[in-house]
Amino acid sequence: MTTLDEAVGARPCTPDDATRNDPHRLPGVSGLVVGILAGTGPQGRGLTHRLAGAGQQVIIGSRNAARAASTAAAIDGDVRGSIDATTTWESDVLIVATPWEDMPSC
C-alpha cells in the first residue's frame, strides 16, 4: 500500500530546508506599492502606520479623494491618498481593510 507521502513525493525535512526557508533569503518586497482600500478607517490607518513605518510605499484608497489625501498627510512615510479606482490600478498588493461586520452575508 502506498502512503500519502509517497504518493505526493514528500520527503523528510533536512537541514537544507531551514536554509531555503530562511526569511533573510526571501525576495525583497520593499519596492512594491501596497494599496489599502477603505484606508481612511481605523483598520486602514493602523495598517498604513505599520507598513509605512517599515518603509513600505502605501496608497490609501477612499471613495473621497480629499479624505484619502488628508489621512495620508497625517501619516509619516511614503504615503499618499487617492480614490479607490486609482489605488487599485497603481498598487502591486491590495488590501481591503473593511471590518468583518460590514461584509455582506450570503
Explain this structure:
The protein has five helices and four strands, in the order ααβαβαβαβ. The protein starts with a helix and ends in a 10-residue tail after the last strand. 37% of the residues lie in helices and 19% in strands. The protein has helices spanning 4-8, 15-20, 42-53, 65-73, 84-90, and strands at residues 33-37, 57-62, 79-83, 93-96. The protein has 106 residues and is α/β, with parallel strands linked by helices. It has a four-stranded parallel β-sheet. It is extended.
Instruction: Show unreliable segments.
Output: none
Number of helices: 5
Summing up helix and strand content along with how strands pair, one would put the structural category as alpha/beta
Strand sequence of the main sheet, in spatial order? 3-2-1-4
Determine Rg (CA atoms, Å): 20 Å
- Estimate the mean pLDDT confidence: 84
The share of residues in helices is 25-40%
Report the span from N to C terminus: 43 Å
Indicate the proportion of strand residues: 15-25%
What overall form do the CA principal axes indicate? Answer: extended
Largest sheet: 4 strands, parallel
Order of helices and strands: HHEHEHEHE
What is the number of strand segments?
4
